[in-house]
């Protein structure tokens, strides 16, 4: 098959998820274009970089030109989400309706809202009451309605909080691993004895790529492969073993600025803080059974993440 005849997969958003996905798709032999508002800094081998503002109809149409599959991994600053994400959705959905490309959307658990600890499956009702939760639920309804109406071919892949190599802005990211390695104060939120699901960023990428490869999954929500939930206290114990020193915790029982999370972020995050005061348990059994994929074990995820942060903090060796 010539390079010109290889179907093009376009990834919108060059954050940790989009970058990991672009690498995963390239590794699977696809032609890949990675798109962000400014030229993506990430230079993934075999991936074309492209600059476009996909919150505009013109930018989205240019970004997805010639694509067979489009992956929506766009995110924006937390305080801008309710304003900007609907614009992105309208532009991207209109673009794939025009071109006929399949659309794979990276989604969150926000539409479920507070569950009082109920295990979240794809059958869990959407009961969000927060602004961002309702916004996400409305967008998802519109995606699925477009699919049902035959205007577009759409599938949604939901992830729990990210963790893994390259993940900085997560509650299990830049506020945890550098401090654990250096003996500083590790951020903890809410009740650290509650189980909390985290999805390995590499499983996010592999899961989305799998959905992109199999149209049989279209028209519904899937939970991306996610290891069984454990408590934050247990995660800290695992990290402690890996770094070889005690973890010094700072537990925030209510949202306030700490480390990489400034006041603007925490003010916006306050309505979502319930995620740390009740269990957050995501079940991905349906995806695992349907596609024959298993999540990365949590200990392997943490090992890889510690090693990535260690390399980041020490820099290149001379």
Automatic annotation (TrEMBL):
Pfam families the UniProt entry points to: Epimerase (PF01370)
The name this protein goes by in its record: NAD-dependent epimerase/dehydratase family protein
All residue ranges annotated as the NAD-dependent epimerase/dehydratase domain in the record: 11-216
Coiled coil: none
PANTHER family named in the record: NAD(P)-BINDING DOMAIN-CONTAINING PROTEIN-RELATED, PROTEIN YEEZ
InterPro entries: Epimerase_deHydtase, NAD(P)-bd_dom_sf, NAD(P)-dependent_oxidoreduct
């Amino acid at each position: 098959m010539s390079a010109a005849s290889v179907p093009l997969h376009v990834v919108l958003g060059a954050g940790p998820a989009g970058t990991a996905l672009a690498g995963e798709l390239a590794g699977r032999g696809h032609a890949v274009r990675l798109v962000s508002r400014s030229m993506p800094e990430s230079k993934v081998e075999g991936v074309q970089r492209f600059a476009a503002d996909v919150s505009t109809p013109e930018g989205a149409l240019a970004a997805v030109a010639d694509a067979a599959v489009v992956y929506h991994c766009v995110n924006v600053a937390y305080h801008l989400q309710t304003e900007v994400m609907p614009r992105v959705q309208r532009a991207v959905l209109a673009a794939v309706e025009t071109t006929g490309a399949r659309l794979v959307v990276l989604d969150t658990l926000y539409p479920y809202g507070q569950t009082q600890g109920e295990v979240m499956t794809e059958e869990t009702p959407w009961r969000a009451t927060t602004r961002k939760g309702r916004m996400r639920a409305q967008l998802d309804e519109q995606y699925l309605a477009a699919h049902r109406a035959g205007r577009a071919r759409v599938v949604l892949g939901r992830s729990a909080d990210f963790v893994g190599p390259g993940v900085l802005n997560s509650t299990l990211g830049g506020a945890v691993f550098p401090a654990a390695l250096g003996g500083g104060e590790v951020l903890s939120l809410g009740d650290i004895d509650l189980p909390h699901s985290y999805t390995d960023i590499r499983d996010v990428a592999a899961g989305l790529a799998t959905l992109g490869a199999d149209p049989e999954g279209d028209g519904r929500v899937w939970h991306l492969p996610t290891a069984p939930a454990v408590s934050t206290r247990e995660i800290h114990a695992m990290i402690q073993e890996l770094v070889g020193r005690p973890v010094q915790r700072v537990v925030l029982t209510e949202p306030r600025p700490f480390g990489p999370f400034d006041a603007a972020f925490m003010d916006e995050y306050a309505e979502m803080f319930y995620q740390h005061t009740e269990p957050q348990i995501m079940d991905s059994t349906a995806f695992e059974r349907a596609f024959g994929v298993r999540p990365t074990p949590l200990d392997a995820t943490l090992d890889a993440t510690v090693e990535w942060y260690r390399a980041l903090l020490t820099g290149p060796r001379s």
